[in-house]
């Protein structure tokens, strides 16, 4: 597999400076920004890779704060395109789950029953509405949109330059753009009718991708904090020798391990399409989002003032933790889904199931 690496000594990259075309030198290649001179890259997993392998790569991308839609491409867009029967295009991809779009058929059927546009001679669509906060829309070669047409759930591909783009970003400066669609015609060749469960799977994949990124960023916070407290001295001894610091470090390591375990446990159910996938993904995103704030708090507390500066690499991890915590559902929304996914008779088997 090809790899392509970009090195930089600048820890922060403004959102307007993102150009992920530079990160895709070949179809299966993605580069990472590193802060050393050693060759270092995170390759995109092969299309046949298991969910566990993809999650491992996404976690590494989160740990390195890769400035590209790695998770969106590898864990969400590519699998959904394959499941829907589309060829997978080269380059970075993004996604939007948009049940609020207004969709009608562009060529209403002559024998339609009901209002005009409720059925069509073919699947060409007219789409209106706003796709809000689409990850990396400005740099994606295509956005995979999942919505509901008059006939039911559909998946279609959208080139971002066909929409009116309003740039935006999250706290970490990653692009989160709005795409405005006004009676935009989507050719039938770019539309697939999909079963309802694939729409659910899209939400699960998006949430698990964000949880895996959080797991990687949490690992980075732990690495940086342990190194800092070992090197920084106060009153003649390293910070890591103080009992209060040891206790906080232990809690940081514990929270990081919890997130990693929850993400890993969700891989097998999602891979097999098991009914347990909804429970496992809800547990992973609930834990990841709940732990993100605590991990960032401890890391910054033990770093002190240096941790909030642009000179410290810590902010690359913590600003992403704060952003990813809320994206694709926060801990409260996923905790509700977690509770609804089990009943008194299914709770114990779900907790004790072996992947």
Give me the Rg, rounded: 22 Å
- Supply the number of helical segments: 9
H/E series = EEHHEEEEEEEEHEEHHHHHH
CATH superfamily of the largest domain: Butyryl-CoA Dehydrogenase, subunit A, domain 3
Mean pLDDT: 85
How do the strands of the widest beta sheet line up side by side? Answer: 3-6-7-10
CATH architecture descriptor of the largest domain? Up-down Bundle
Low-pLDDT stretches are 1-39
Indicate the CATH class of the largest domain: Mainly Alpha
Secondary structure tally: strands: 12
Head-to-tail CA distance between termini: 29 Å
Structurally, how many domains make up the residues?
3
Main beta-sheet strand count, sense and barrel state: 4 strands, mixed
Which percent range describes the beta-strand content? 15-25%
User: What is the name of the CATH topology of the largest domain?
Assistant: Butyryl-CoA Dehydrogenase, subunit A, domain 3
Large-scale geometry: globular
